[in-house]
């Protein structure tokens, strides 16, 4: 991969940056590639780690891209690990929003893992002058097994909060949540269907006390960030299920059962789309039984 502005941050220099205080004491140095060499500028915005499973469902894809896009638009830097699944979706959401994203690598700073994500790594550097690739390994070092857990520790350590959007019961992303908890960093999770293997990890996190997130406003509140005020545009449904739900709620059929009975969709499709529409900020519910358009 083409070399960009590459910075080596020594152990002593890491200690000078309050942004990186949690990265110590285990890291000897950090290597950083970015369009900028101003570390303070790169790390100035609030930073949210968005991580999760490599094998992600359609629901997880929609949730991750929507949350990362909206939160990047709100001025939050999205931090993740450039892995398959949730990680790459988080980076892509930030890139599409024109926002900032930081990828923490499990390999040398001059290479990319997985190789198939070389294009995304290039987009991260090119899309925003303050976006960056970071690694504690120099040169073209290939990833070793223990590098992935070390990478997860750095992701948690350099973030102000951690959000797991979808994770199976043994997802490696749960180690990121554990590191965050050890450091007193807020951990958030998006609930998923109770019969979905890819949501067992996130549902368990919520049961254990993680903050439940169903929309971007939840994240902003937990991170104590004031949402920007902007004009709300009419929402265009992404599919026929969403269109039916919006039409039925608008016609005063507001409970989940009423929507299911009067639609041409399965209960599974309705429940999944209700959750996605809530995350998108299109509908809301105070009791998860009665729905209203926003």
Describe this structure in words.
By secondary structure, this protein is α/β, with parallel strands linked by helices. The protein has 2 domains: 5-222, 3-Layer(aba) Sandwich (Rossmann fold), CATH 3.40.50.450; 240-293, Arc Repressor Mutant, subunit A. It is built from 12 helices and 11 strands. The protein has helices at residues 11-16, 39-42, 58-73, 86-96, 118-127, 145-157, 173-183, 200-207, 216-222, 240-250, 256-262, 267-279; strands at 5-10, 29-34, 47-51, 77-80, 101-104, 132-135, 161-164, 187-189, 211-212, 283-284, 292-293. The strands form 2 sheets. The chain has a 9-stranded mixed beta sheet, sandwiched between helices. Helix 3 runs parallel beside helix 4, helix 3 packs parallel to helix 12 (267-279) and helix 6 packs across helix 7 (173-183). The longest helix is centred in the first third of the chain and has 16 residues, at 58-73. The N and C termini lie far apart (45 Å). Residues 229-233 have low confidence and may be disordered.
